[in-house]
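Our preliminary data section would be incomplete without showing what the modeling component actually yields. Below, a chain of 190 amino acids is followed by its predicted structure, encoded as tokens that our downstream tools consume directly.
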Amino acid sequence: MVAFVPRDDRRGNVRRDLKNRVGLEVSFQLSLSTESVSSAYPDEPTFVTPSATVGEVIRLFGAQQTGSVLVCSDNASDSGQLLGIFTERDALKCMAAVSSGEQPELMAQPVSDVMSSELTTLQADTTVSEAIKLMSQGGYRHLPIVAEDGRPVGMENVYGIVHYLVDHFPQTIYNLPPNPRAIPSEREGA
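Predicted structure:
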């Protein structure tokens, strides 16, 4: 919960201000814990097969203007099962290894060799609050949304979450100071 100090504007509005802020906080918490990630602007996932090369996937990032791709099986028996994810963070690691001369052939290797295969995923009915918690705890910027059968149906990312928060709670978001817990070293104002 956000802490604040009500200011007295000499018109007796402290009590009304407190009531409005508490109402906003309750609304904020209620929406985050009841609305699903499908309302938080998930992206359509971009898919590649395990045999796609790292270089091809990096070019796909630019062409599709995306920061992640889902690596899915191309077997008829598995029909699009999620095998892993390759993100812009993985791409940077690969480019660093190539530019340093450690692994010059890395761009020609299959993406399945360097993708993250231990995945944290979301269900379509996962709440926005749970998604934020998972992203925060795991340091993730992209989380696949999967159907009950394990096939990917969407991609939630930090940009979608922030867009959701700004759209649904503009008063709360726009009124936050840059560092809400900071205590000023000097008195502010005239």
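The chain has a mean pLDDT of 82. The radius of gyration is 22 Å. Preliminary results of this kind motivate Aim 1 of the renewal.
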